[in-house]
Amino acid sequence: NVPSVLYALENPVRRKSHKLYDNEVEILIKVMDVNDNAPIFKENDGPIIAVVPDRANYGYPVLKVEAYDEDSGNNGEIRYSLLNEPARLFDVDALTGQIRLLSSLVTFQDRVFGFDVKATDRVGADDGKSTIANVFVYVLNAQQEVCLILAG
């Protein structure tokens, strides 16, 4: 995705005979991307919320976070990681952003878990730019009905 520009330069050349020759040279210039953009979560208007039944077990797909980056090449390659998740109940796939359960939630009825997901560009390198999204996971008793009202 790096833009390329082809320029034709004309350069008059004089030889020992003082005769003027026109030489035409084509130069290909590639503009390299600098990492000037941080990733942006598609859900960037507030926290990301998921509702999970208490019967959910290991491997259950809780939700998938998605971020994009306007940089190109490795500067735009995003990796995901979890922050502030002390319960160790959740894991995120670094490549896809899919958050899954690491344990059963049967003993966590009617609980809310909050943690952060970090999206880092430059393939997750330490010098990459990053963005953090807040995630809240509501664990519901499967016998109850739920009504969530989200205010903007």
UniProtKB/TrEMBL annotation:
PROSITE patterns: CADHERIN_1, CADHERIN_2. Transmembrane segments: none annotated. It is found in: Membrane. Residues 7-41, 44-150 form the Cadherin domain. GO terms for biological process: homophilic cell adhesion via plasma membrane adhesion molecules. One of its GO terms (molecular function) is calcium ion binding. One of its GO terms (cellular component) is plasma membrane. It is a single-pass membrane protein. Keywords: Calcium, Glycoprotein, Membrane, Repeat, Transmembrane, Transmembrane helix. PANTHER family: CADHERIN-87A, CADHERIN-RELATED FAMILY MEMBER 1. This is Cadherin-89D. It comes from Culex pipiens.
